[in-house]
Design brief:
The protein has 345 residues and is mainly β. Strands 4, 6, 7, 9, 10 and 11 form a 6-stranded mixed sheet that branches. Strands 22, 23, 26, 27, 28 and 29 form a 6-stranded antiparallel sheet that branches. Strands 24-25-30-31 form a 4-stranded antiparallel sheet, with no helix packed on it. The N terminus is likely disordered.
Length: 345
Amino acid sequence: MKKIFMLCTALGTGLVLMLASCKKTGSLAYMGNATAGAVTASANKVVLDVSKMTVADTSILFTIKSASFGYDAAITNELQFDSVGDNWAKAVGVAMDAGASKLPYSTYKLNSLALKLGLPVNAAGQVLVRLKSTVSTVTVYSDPITLTVTPFSAASSVYVPGAYQGWSPAAADSLVSETSNGIYAGVINFTGSDFGFKITTAKNWTAAYGQGSTAGTVSLSGGNLTAPGNGGYLLTLNTDLLTLAYTPQWSVIGDAAGGWSTDTQMYLNKTNNSWYVTMKLTSDGTKTIKFRFKNDWGTNLGAGSGAGTLSSGGGNITIPATAAGGDNYTISINPTTLTYTLVKI
């Protein structure tokens, strides 16, 4: 009986020791401690050459040593890039193919990445790179390496032909991406009663974004897009996510301009960055207007300290008495110089 008891005790002790050597993180148990992998680069200093922008070159080659989790497992590897001082808060992740140990980066891709991370153009900046390895709920990170990268300016444009300008890609206004990161933005003045338009990748109809399958999306095979209405709208196109956003800019509002719940959008004068609109105002000599940004009272301009001046959050601007049916005015504002004009026409 004593021998049986001692045998059971020995077996129990062995089982406890076995369990003690088995680590558990989340729902995943693995033998021993996970060991992070490593990443190396073919160069630690890269000066990017704009002449290779469209060439299928390899400006830098990343090589990884995969992490170890103590047993055979399918590991998901991702290279993460970030600028120095960001503490990986806005890291850009690039997934690696299963089983791959190398990741080449072309001049175009590395330049776009550097600009997306905020590195200065034509100046050396630093990029941190690390390997993120994951099995189930367990993730380990390699020690980061530091690259010194000198990117070049890579601004690019897309074009917005539409009914407002006669459907001419060659003469259309543009949306600009300062870093060619796939995000293009610009103010387009939509006029008339037809608000249809498209976005072309060049000043021709070779490739054009139209309406996507849902609101706020675009497609290279879609029909015409439709602007919200008259006025200057900031268009933001994301060619990676295939999304398009419209943001109203400056507007006129007031009981002399149709009521305090109705904004009349203004147009951008791109030569001096002022905003203008011609509209009917109606007043008995006491009605007023103000100007606001994005159809929101968070940023609004009212009367300043002198004639024709504006101030942030200033008082209402009184409109002189008009004819019974109202009078037409050309109204302009300059949000930078905080001035405005009211010209009766």
